Amino acid sequence: MATASPHVHLVQIYYEDTDFSGVVYHANYLKYFERAREHLIGVDELVRLFREDGIGFVVYKAELTFREGAVHGDTLEIRTRVSVGSEYRAVFHQEVWRQGGKSALVVGSVDLVCVDPANKLVPLPQRVIEGIRAFA
């Protein structure tokens, strides 16, 4: 079940984010989504999981739909809802909104799984599941 209220992460668009046409280069949205997920989970928790538990997150699946391009000078809201897809998968439903905008510019879904130091699939840590459920 997805969250009722999204986590919001702000991103300022700089000239370097744009392509020759003046709109944000499509691949940058994956970076913005990543930053928002990192803030939602918590940098300290991600570092702790890796250093103490040997667990890292990897992208299993990503789908993006582009509706409108952001431009230099925009401030974007990356709105994230998260759910537990299975004991192995967290699903992040993410949207990009221009601040004050009336509709999403980009809509995406990113599925993350956890791996151990040998890159073998492991279940989501209980702390992560609890955090997702508490957020939801």
- The span between the termini is 7 Å
Structural domain count: 1
Tell me, rounded to a whole number, the average pLDDT. Answer: 94
Order of helices and strands: EHHEEEEEH
Q: Give the full name of the CATH homologous superfamily.
A: Hotdog Thioesterase
Write the CATH fold name.
Thiol Ester Dehydrase, Chain A
Oligomer: single chain
Which spans have pLDDT < 50 for at least 5 consecutive residues?
Answer: none
CATH architecture, by name, is: Roll
Topology, element by element:
Layout: E1 7-12, H1 28-41, H2 43-53, E2 56-66, E3 75-86, E4 89-98, E5 104-115, E6 121-122, H3 126-135
Describe the structure.
With 136 residues, the chain is an alpha+beta fold. It has a single domain, classed as Roll (Thiol Ester Dehydrase, Chain A). Helices cover 26% and strands 39% of the residues. It contains 3 helices and 6 strands, in the order E-H-H-E-E-E-E-E-H. It has helices at residues 28-41, 43-53, 126-135; strands at residues 7-12, 56-66, 75-86, 89-98, 104-115, 121-122. Strands 1, 2, 3, 4, 5 and 6 form a 6-stranded antiparallel beta sheet that branches. A hairpin with a 5-residue loop joins strand 4 (89-98) and strand 5. The radius of gyration is 16 Å and the shape is elongated.
